[in-house]
Amino acid sequence: MLKLYYSPASPYVRKVMATAHCLGLADRIEKLEAAAHPVQRDARIATFNPLAKVPALQTEDGLALYDSRVICEYLDALGNGSLFPPEGQARWVALTRQSLADGLLDAALLARYEGTARPAEKQWSGWVEAQMTKIRAALETIEAQAGQFEGTPSDIGLIAIGCALGYLDFRFADFDWRALCPNAAAWFAEFDSHPAMAATRPRA
Question: DSSP 3-state assignment of 38?
Answer without folding.
Answer: coil
